[in-house]
Amino acid sequence: MIDVEELIGLVRSYNPNTNAALIRDAYAYGREMHTGQFRHSGEEYFTHPVAVAAILTEQKLDDATIITALLHDTIEDTKSTYSEVAEMFGKEVAELVDGVTKLTNLQLSSSETKQAENFRKLFMAMSKDLRVILVKLGDRLHNMRTIKSMRPEKQVQKARETMDIFAPLAGRMGMQWMREELEDLSFGVLNPEGRNSIIRRFVTLQRETGDVVHRITHDIRAELGAVEITAEVLGRAKKPYSIWRKMEEKEQGFSRLSDIYGFRILTDNEADCYRVLGVIHQRWRAVPGRFKDYISQPKSNGYRSIHTTVSGRDGKRVEVQIRTRQMHEVAEAGVAAHWSYRDGVRAQNPFAVDPAKWIAGLTERFENADDHDEFLEHVKLEMYADKVFCFTPKGDVEKLPKGATPLDFAYAIHTRIGHRCVGAKVDGIRVPLWTRLKNGQSVEITTAEGQRPQATWLDIVTTGRAKSAIRRSLREEDRERFIKLGRELARVAFDHIGKKSTDKVLEAAAEQMALPDADELLARLGSAELSAQYVVGLLYPDIAQDAVDAVDENRAVVGLTEDQTSQRARCCQPIPGERIVGIAQRGHGVFIHSIDCDVLANFEEAPDRWVDLHWHSGTHKPVHSVTIEVTLSNDAGSLGRICTLIGEQKANISDMNFADRKPDFFRILMDIDLRDTQHLHAVVMALELDNSVSSVRRFRDPTRAKSLA
Predict the structure, then answer these.
(1) Which residues contact 206 (CB under 8 A, 6 or more apart)?
(2) N or C: which end of the chain has fewer CB within 10 A?
């Protein structure tokens, strides 16, 4: 633990006019309040607030923020009070400490609906004073650096919360270095084997190729020196998690991944940034589609830089970021640059964003969310997504998340234009509505009076605003269709247990679920918001489901130890009658895969994670969900017929989604609860014999297991 004079020295290095006496008082007060308290590692607890304060000095923050870091746990964990802190250190510090305390008590990783409401409170706290979040991020960073002293299950919980909430929040605030470190520390907890494998491969690569970073840095300096451009060149290998994410996104192995090195070039002025860009592109071949100019189109958090990727030595791709030194300060500190000090005065960086304007712009999009889930969707989209800037035919700029489509663009202009969209032109060329937009493109939307939103649009759009508007329209437009489909799903599910789905029964179910009427229940069944199996179980929980000799579903698999939990892998959905194997996953138990699952190839180099399993002999209950893809003609009664055929085979339809809808044919994904492979064969045979069915196949999707690979 650094002593108080060392801490004051860190602050004085950028703020000679610091109130050293007040920092000494805060240090002494915090130490006294935390006397007798210890961390999981056995260290004095006060080492933690001091470490957080030291982290914040790296961002050259003001005295109030540093003092808040020293006291941030006093009101929550000691006998200290708000009034006492206010009296000793001023109202500003007391408000900040109180804000951090309230933020600590929010269960941001909760899976309940209250998570969205807690996000609202998070943004309220941010809107009062953004320094509350800066202290909280420093607090989380130090906790992640020392996480190994916690219990394993607590480590996983904290790491997941950090990966889902705090790392993207740091990135959204422009503090990219903190985001990368938080992600990498979380990665080391959530997937230590994956991280270690990346590091091992890096060591091997360096042994084979030498110090690539040093060679490329030398090459860039030589090229800039030849044209007399003064600039600082920095190079580094990317963080293990960043490389892992690229491997996942591009579905490539490490050996095929090229842009694993990053370089920054810092210039004296903006004109030199573009001169440097010309030098780089003249010397090395630019990679198409990998150029972004955030100087002419800055990010909303103040970030300015030119990004380009070029083919460097031996054809290896390297990413180059070009910016001025002032831009670099904001790139490192993000929104926090607003409070940075230099030589005793607030640094007047022209690129630093006004926090009040930044938070107002961030929250503006959330005000129209209809419910908590939509608000949460907006928040996560805003935190995770980069931006693209596109132009209307009149030259106005629309700001959208990275990955947005012309349909998102239409809804960004006006909901009415989105609803009536039938086509789009990008840079004068007609393109499909699912095209991903790029920076600087001009987008023209074509509308038609009779057009209405379609269900497939939900898979096309990425913005919360568009998704919300489409869902709202579909609920209104398709209510009758959902009611009709829901009635058919209910009939099949109730027939399966020998009961009738009468109006009286449906009204009773709606009443138990606090829904206004049976039509609302049926509409939710038809739109897949509820499953028919759930409704049946709600009304008839005690009905015997299978024969007495049926296998206990909790003991359906043989080969697990007493302390191992298991679940069927969603990628291959194995069922009794198939050969299976288990893959152990830290924190998730054992995932059961069929022996021919494509995902197993990802674990060929990890034989210690394979578990020898087989199904328990006997009659299994029809609880093993399998997805089948059915293509059938769009004829009157065809859907009802195949639902009846499945019901006649004593199988239950637990979910149904229209994957494709054409005037003559439907393609439907149906989740069916089955006993075993013979039961599946009987269902498929029954469907194939129907004249309206064009094809039936078992649907398997390796991407469902992507996060577990």
Answers:
(1) 212
(2) N
Instruction: For the chain, give the number of residues.
Output: 709
For residue 594 the two structure tokens come to 């069929």
Q: Which two tokens stand for residue 262?
A: 């990053």
CB 401 within 8 A of CB 385: yes
* Own/partner pairs, 266-270, CB within 8 angstroms, 24+ separation: 266/231, 266/232, 266/233, 266/234, 266/323, 266/324, 266/325, 266/328, 267/229, 267/230, 267/231, 267/322, 267/323, 267/324, 267/325, 268/230, 268/231, 268/324, 268/325, 269/324, 270/295, 270/324
Burial environment of residue 472 by CB neighbours within 10 A (0 to 12, 13 to 18, 19 or more): middle
pLDDT tens figures, 626-683: 999 999 888 888 888 898 889 888 889 988 888 888 777 888 999 999 988 888 988 8
Q: Cα(111)–Cα(364) distance, rounded to whole angstroms?
A: 25
Spell out the alpha helix ranges (H) of 322-414.
Answer: 325-333, 355-364, 372-384, 406-413
Q: Which two tokens stand for residue 367?
A: 């005000």
Alpha-carbon distance of 113 to 135, in angstroms, equals 27
Q: How many helices (H) and strands (E) does the chain have?
A: 29, 23
- For 82, counting Cβ atoms within 10 Å of its Cβ (0-12 exposed, 13-18 middle, 19+ buried), the class is middle
Which among 131, 195, 173, 531 has a CA at the least distance from the CA of 383? Answer: 173
Burial letters for 156-178: b for 16+ Cβ neighbours within 10 Å, e otherwise? bebbebbbbbbbbbbbbbbbbbb
Tens digits of residue pLDDT in 316-327: 778 899 999 989
The residues near 438 (Cβ < 8 Å, ≥ 6 apart) are 289, 388
What phi and psi, each to the nearest 5 degrees, are found at residue 159? -65, -40
Interval 392-436: pLDDT, tens: 888 777 878 778 899 999 998 999 999 999 999 998 888 889 898
What is the phi/psi pair of residue 342, to 5°?
-150, 125
CA atoms within 13 A on the CB side of 241: 17
- Residues 6 or more apart whose Cβ sits within 8 Å of residue 464: 365, 369, 374, 377, 378, 381, 382
- Residues labelled catalytic: 76-77
Over range 212-225, report the average pLDDT: 89
Show Cβ contacts of residue 21 under 8 Å, excluding neighbours closer than 6 positions: none
- Give first-to-last CA distance, the chain, whole Å: 40
Q: How far apart are CA 153 and CA 284, in angstroms?
A: 48
Which residues fall within 8 angstroms of residue 91, CB to CB, at 6 or more apart? none
> Would you list the DSSP string of 232-276?
EEEEEEPPHHHHHHHHHHHT--GGG----EEEEEEESSHHHHHHH
